[in-house]
Design goal:
Strand order of the largest sheet: 1-4-5-6-7-8-9-10
Number of strands: 10
Strand content: over 45%
Shape: globular
């Protein structure tokens, strides 16, 4: 009987704990920073080149051009935001134009977010790492262009 009550208690507790991040993430989030090799702070309108990108540019004649390309990429998200719905819907906007519409599922214990979308009529899954810290949401998104993950910093609006 004790085992049954303990199991019942755990069953009720676990969904509540795993739902904490789900509850906190619901809402509209504005991009306030991005690190794609160039760490851009949209509030301060300033940037730095991170060590990883800087190391790949040593001795290259086109390093200024490469930094400018990464900077333009970061600047393209200066008015972007994400909306996470309580129904697990996920939307990305640039300005007022929707960039993508997907669904998501959090894996709080692993600090991972599975994002589901359709590609070529088939469901695809991409996994982001995430962290909720000091009223900010940090997403670590895979990139097609660079080896490292892109870090996107969001603040709830």
């Amino acid at each position: 009987m004790r085992l049954f009550l303990f199991t019942l208690f755990l069953t009720m507790l676990v969904p509540h704990c795993s739902g904490q991040d789900s509850f906190k993430i619901v809402g509209r989030w504005r991009v306030v920073g991005m690190d794609n090799g160039v760490n851009f702070d949209y509030k301060a309108e300033s940037y730095t080149v991170n060590k990883s990108l800087s190391n790949t540019l040593c001795g290259r004649l086109d390093s200024a051009k490469v930094v400018k390309e990464f900077l333009n990429w970061a600047l393209s998200c200066s008015n972007c935001f994400y909306i996470f719905g309580s129904d697990n819907s996920y939307k990305e906007y640039r300005e007022e134009d929707i960039r993508s519409e997907r669904s998501f599922q959090l894996k709080p214990g692993q600090k991972k977010m599975n994002v589901y979308f359709l590609k070529d009529g088939r469901s695809k899954k991409v996994t982001y790492k995430y962290e909720l810290l000091n009223e900010k949401l940090f997403l670590y998104v895979p990139s097609f262009f660079i080896k490292d993950k892109i870090e996107i910093t969001l603040e709830k609006q």
